[in-house]
């Protein structure tokens, strides 16, 4: 049986003020309440209360993974470069990877995710279709060298994650494994008390086909997702696809005409100079794709989503051009680029730049723009890609209703990887017909430490943290609001509750005022607060619901019975 947690013996130091560098609610409260402390940028130490919350989340995740027949393993975090070279991800991850060498000069990395290693394990251990299907998972530390780690434990360079992988011999089997994980994730997040949405997503460096994210709506979230108010459509903004505009008749437009537009290198200055809406202009953004200059055309009132563009062109590296890229390129006039003069440049356009549409755009001459520039007549589009930033009110791809935008924290992601990793490592098993069968895989992640931050963001109030019971570091926070008599009663009640299996944190600190104890109890966020206070001599205590603030006076026997029912 676990012991009562006594705050007089607990390593905890609460703070009255927010950390100077804290921007988000979870960062402020997890530090102030003594759950975590910053060790370095993006690297956090989990203190006793924080470790309990982390373990409680891990327990829920482990129970639900075991329930679908998954088997837990633990693979190394320090990994050989060769495994990631085999899939090309050593280069694809770029600066996100922590790279290092051993004393002999061999290359290693700290694992950001473990598809390669799990694939190799299964290749070593499974040789027949009889060995499959199998689902393996682990809960361990991952590493990504974030350029700007922020928001406390929400976006760190070291973080706790559950990653699992399914191995099947057929696409139908993969679909079943994917469905098992999807259902398990719904149960996990419901048990954790997380409000969440399941949205369509892109696979990114993971590869594969079907992909869904589990998002926890919160103002501090780094993901933006769309939600249709009229149907069940929801998606990460990078996964939203615009329905292509049909070809229009451009024959009514006159010939291309140059316009004198001095000092108008931006859409804003051009629209103001001509007295036209930005939507009448064509914005041409120059980027480099694996070092080659490419132009991207979108309506002037829209912005290019570089994340979307990168997903479309992956695994190629996409970056913005610099001033140096214009040197020696007479065909590129900075601020006045138009598609009708880009014979040497690949031209990508958003579907809104449909054949037959006419635009005001750069004339490829300094201080000059051109009007009546018609797509399909005056310039050709090499590739149509949906690359604009999604905006509130854009039509739902499913029903056409205006979409709503919201912020959220990514707490889970599931992928049908297919055979990308199996192909890289030639993962075959002997099939039922006696011939080799290529294995197909799924990959499924839950951000365990991110879930702590997401819960803090969603459930906290103006007084502090407010944990769901299954996740809280204790079930009941007993406060001795006085001296010897109150402390004696508080400890007695705590022992009775503990004996009945209730997890108890008791504030028995001497020399600490009742006001400070009450403030700390609300800051720490245990769901039920029991106060041994002014009526302790009568054997009466106060029960307070941390979330609602409702209070009730009960005898000790009544309180114990209530809390152990």
UniProtKB/TrEMBL annotation:
Its EC number is 6.1.1.15. One of its GO terms (molecular function) is ligase activity. Pfam families: HGTP_anticodon, tRNA-synt_2b, tRNA_edit. It is found in: Cytoplasm. Keywords: Aminoacyl-tRNA synthetase, ATP-binding, Cytoplasm, Ligase, Nucleotide-binding, Protein biosynthesis. The keyword Secreted does not apply. The keyword Transmembrane does not apply. Consists of three domains: the N-terminal catalytic domain, the editing domain and the C-terminal anticodon-binding domain. This is Proline--tRNA ligase. It comes from Streptomyces rectiviolaceus. The gene is proS.
């Amino acid at each position: 049986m676990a012991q009562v947690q006594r705050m007089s013996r607990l390593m905890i130091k609460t703070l009255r003020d927010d950390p100077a560098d804290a921007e988000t609610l979870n960062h402020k409260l997890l530090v102030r309440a003594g759950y975590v402390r910053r060790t370095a940028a993006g690297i956090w130490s989990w203190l006793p209360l924080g470790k309990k919350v982390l373990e409680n989340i891990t327990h829920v995740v482990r129970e639900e993974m075991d329930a679908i027949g998954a088997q837990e393993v633990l693979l190394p975090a320090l990994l050989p470069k060769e495994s990631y070279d085999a899939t090309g991800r050593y280069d694809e991850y770029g600066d996100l990877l922590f790279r290092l060498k051993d004393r002999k000069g061999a290359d290693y990395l700290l694992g950001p995710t473990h598809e390669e290693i799990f694939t190799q394990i299964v290749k070593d251990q499974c040789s027949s279709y009889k060995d499959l299907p199998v689902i393996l998972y682990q809960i361990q530390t991952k590493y990504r060298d974030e350029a700007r780690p922020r928001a406390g434990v929400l976006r760190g360079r070291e973080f706790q994650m559950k990653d699992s992988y399914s191995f099947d011999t057929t696409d139908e089997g993969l679909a079943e494994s994917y469905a098992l994980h999807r259902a398990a994730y719904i149960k996990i997040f419901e048990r954790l008390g997380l409000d969440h949405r399941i949205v369509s997503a892109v696979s990114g460096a993971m590869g594969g086909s079907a992909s869904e994210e589990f998002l926890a709506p919160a103002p501090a979230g780094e993901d933006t997702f769309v939600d249709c108010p009229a149907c069940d459509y929801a998606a990460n903004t990078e996964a939203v696809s615009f329905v292509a505009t049909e070809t229009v008749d451009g024959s009514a437009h006159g010939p291309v005409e140059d316009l004198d537009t001095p000092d108008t290198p931006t859409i804003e200055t051009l629209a103001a100079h001509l007295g036209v809406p930005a939507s009448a202009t064509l914005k041409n953004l120059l980027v480099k794709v694996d070092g080659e200059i490419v132009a991207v055309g979108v309506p002037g009132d829209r912005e290019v989503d570089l994340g979307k563009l990168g997903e479309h062109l992956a695994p190629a590296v996409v970056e913005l051009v610099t001033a140096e890229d214009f040197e020696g390129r007479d065909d590129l006039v900075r601020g006045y680029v138009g598609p009708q003069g880009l014979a040497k440049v690949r031209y990508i356009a958003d579907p809104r730049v449909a054949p037959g549409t006419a635009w005001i755009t750069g004339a490829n001459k300094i201080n000059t723009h051109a009007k009546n520039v018609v797509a399909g007549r005056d310039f050709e589009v090499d590739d149509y890609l949906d690359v604009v930033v999604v905006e509130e009110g854009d039509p739902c791809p499913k029903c056409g209703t205006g979409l709503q935008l919201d912020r959220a924290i990514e707490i889970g992601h599931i992928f049908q990887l297919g055979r990308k990793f199996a192909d890289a490592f030639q993962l075959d098993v002997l099939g039922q017909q006696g011939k080799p069968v290529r294995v197909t895989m799924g990959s499924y992640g839950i951000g365990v430490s991110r879930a702590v931050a997401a819960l803090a963001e969603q459930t906290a109030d103006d007084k502090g943290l407010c944990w769901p019971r299954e996740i809280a570091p204790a079930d009941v926070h007993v406060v001795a609001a006085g001296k010897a008599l109150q402390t004696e009663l508080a400890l007695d009640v705590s022992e009775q509750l503990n004996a009945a299996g209730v997890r108890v944190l008791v504030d028995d600190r001497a020399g600490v005022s009742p006001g400070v104890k009450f403030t700390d109890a609300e800051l720490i966020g245990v769901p039920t607060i029991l106060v041994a206070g002014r009526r302790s001599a009568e054997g009466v205590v106060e029960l307070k619901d941390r979330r609602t603030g409702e209070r009730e006076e009960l005898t000790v026997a009544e309180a114990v019975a209530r809390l152990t029912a």
